[in-house]
Amino acid sequence: RVKMSAEEILVRAVELGKNFCLYFDELECDALCKEKILHRVLRNINSQLLVVRPDLNLAAFEDVTDQEMQSGKGMHFSIHIYKTTTPLAGLPVAFSVQVENKSYYMCCEREGGEMIVRFKEGEVPKEIPGESNIIFFKKTFTSCSSTAFKFEYSLERGMFLAFQEEGYLRKLILKKLPKDEVDETMKMSL
């Protein structure tokens, strides 16, 4: 501790390791802590709502009537906003949704060499001690559009939530965004 005027300032020890790398002792580890929750629907560029159907293991953007929206089955999302101890490229968020009195959270898993978006039964944790397959970074879609967003998967940079047409469905997927390109399938509004 160093005494300066009337206040004490805590000073941390540092070490120079191999190749003269700088290490700080006793610093707080990287962690994510839930800060607040927003309740929203997610819309694509066609104004369709994201609807989760856990019984079919499916999440897709659909045209929804006012009556269906009132019932809200699988379409009213909780967006869990996390604060972090490290500066990141975007606001860390996780998604959950209620379907028939059960809570489901969005995560990504590798299956057959590709990343799949899944909704699993359970709650979003209050604290995440390190990396997690449920965290996405919320970013503005373009610099001139402050009301539309894209969501980058935290464990695979350059991979974003998007939709892909499969027959009559617009299925929620993870998609690689080539550098400096704009992909409308990744554009979402809250």
TrEMBL record:
The source's domain of life comes to Eukaryota
Question: By its UniProt entry, which SUPFAM superfamilies does this protein fall under?
Answer: Cytokine
Q: Which GO terms describe its biological process?
A: cellular response to lipopolysaccharide; cytokine-mediated signaling pathway; immune response; inflammatory response; positive regulation of cytokine production
Q: Keywords in UniProt for this one?
A: Cytokine, Cytoplasm, Secreted
- Give a GO cellular-component term: cytoplasm
Q: Name one GO molecular function term.
A: cytokine activity
> Where is this protein localized, as stated in its record?
Cytoplasm; Secreted
Q: Pfam families this protein is in?
A: IL1
| CDD domains for the chain | beta-trefoil_IL18
The answer on whether this UniProt entry bears the keyword Cytoplasm reads: yes
Quaternary state and partners of this protein? Forms a ternary complex with ligand-binding receptor subunit IL18R1 and signaling receptor subunit IL18RAP at the plasma membrane. Mature IL18 first binds to IL18R1 forming a low affinity binary complex, which then interacts with IL18RAP to form a high affinity ternary complex that signals inside the cell. Interacts with cargo receptor TMED10; the interaction mediates the translocation from the cytoplasm into the ERGIC (endoplasmic reticulum-Golgi intermediate compartment) and thereby secretion.
Q: What's this protein's family per the entry?
A: Belongs to the IL-1 family.
Could you tell me what this protein is called?
Interleukin-18
Please name the source species: Catharus fuscescens
